[in-house]
Amino acid sequence: MKKILIMAGAVLMLGACTDKESEYDATGTFEATELTVSAQSTGELNPFNVVEGGQVAIGTVVGRIDSKQLQLKKEQLETSRGQLDANRRQLASSRNASNSRQLDLEKQLSSVRQQIANAQRERRRFSELVRDGAVPRKQLDDIDYQIKVLERQLEATSDQIRSNNASLKNQSEGINAQIDGINAQASGLEAQIRQVDDQIAHADVVAPLTGTVLEKYAEAGEFVATGRPLFKMADTRQMYLRAYVTSSQLRHIKVEQQVKVFADYGNGQKKEYQGTVSWISSRSEFTPKTILTDDERADQVYAVKIRIANDGYIKIGMYGEVKF
Question: CA dist 1 to 4, 11, 177, Å?
Answer without folding.
Answer: 5, 15, 115
